[in-house]
């Protein structure tokens, strides 16, 4: 809940109490259901940025090759810096109760640890065969993030782990180790603090690194679509207590699925199309069976329309994959918008609108050279949207007239 | 945040793990420098005549370029090798320097006078494989900055597993102080 809405709710509830619509106890009980949203502590941010700058300074000092000092002295110095930063952080945080400065100093400790890894590499002229230095560094940072609950330190751990994943995939052709590391290092914090910002940070790292891994490994759009389908399945198949988890998973899942579908529609080769299509179909069947079992409204499955695996026919000669995929994207966007409007979920209406706009842009870019096809597609799409709009408006007017009739009676 | 006592305990554990990790990495490198088998290599120097004022230079060793026809190998066609693939290289001392005597995909048995080294395939042509040993980067110490280069030799240390560490570097026959 954002702060503006929270303040408005507080004012309204107090007005109800003053107007004697509710009792004072009821007022307290209602307000207790909505805890105050956490505000951004500017001092905390400044301290953490200070730690980031100081840590970068330490790393640059190392990189400048301070050869005037003997090796053992350099090593001892970095160890002293690591321990001193953590000790100072503990003292300020626990003994003095100054959380912003304490977290900043603990973060400085993680930066010094990273500098230590780089220093040893430089001291012994090592070129690592992989990017494991960043993996170890992110492990240390993630541990401190989990201990302090600091979202900023968690973001640093996510960035370090993403650097590891991207470097491992692009420079060293290692594709697998990133995922267990993500599960071990970032998921515990995301489960402990399932806030939109935390989930979005973690999933940004996961999605960007996955896209890079897919590109570097040549796995193709099928892998991206499968990744998106899995995220969406996670959002829908697990009854999350916190609603933001569902929202963030759906956003990232559909974003990945949309990117994969656009790539497939644009003519990118789909290696292993049959295998990926089978895996995506299995996810879809799982989602449908869950809705069927729980007897929930099938309209909730609208986002899954994005994952109908048209790309399975990529190798079939003469199959118009681009047209079918683009029409599929259009159906998905409109379905998400309509179910959002019907169920009163503004997030789905916005999501559907956004994807509809992107689908129109993609279609225009793809068909720009084929004027006739483009004209027919856009004209027919426009007519369909007019009809949909008219249907929605008609049901809205009917609802209003029914309510007026009931009011008169 | 966790309770202060638990917080202290966990923080001590995390910091100890980090300090031990750095110490272990440092100690293992020092141990390898002290006890590893030494091997002297020649560097094919393509850099500028003078060493740079700061940063590092890239050392390209003669042993990094392997012509398959001239050595013992289990690789029939270099095209079978994948990028960054780990391979085993057998070094033999010839006169003063070590040279490549064999290149294998699977770990071979070596004689007592030979050294077994692990490397990665950098790239390959029809009959030549170019290798990376992980000791190609050399951070130039202040004593060597802007030194005019005629020849460069490097002494590396080899662990029993076949890992390498750059030990001493000689420019024009003179050892550089680290």
Q: What is the CA-based Rg of chain B, rounded?
A: 20 Å
Reading the helices and strands of chain B in chain order gives: HEEEEEEEEEEEE
Q: How far apart lie the N and C ends of chain B? A: 45 Å
Q: Oligomeric status of the shown chains?
A: heterodimer
Number-wise, the strands of chain B total 12
Q: Let me know the largest β-sheet of chain A.
A: none
User: Poorly predicted ranges of chain A (pLDDT <50, ≥5 residues)?
Assistant: none
Q: Could you list the spans of chain B in which at least 5 consecutive residues all have pLDDT below 50?
A: none
Offer a quick outline of the entry.
The complex is a heterodimer of chains A (409) and B (178). Chain A has 409 residues and is an all-alpha fold.
What does this structure look like?
The complex is a heterodimer of chains A (409) and B (178). By secondary structure, chain A is mainly α. Chain A is 77% helix and 0% strand. Chain A contains 16 helices and no strands.
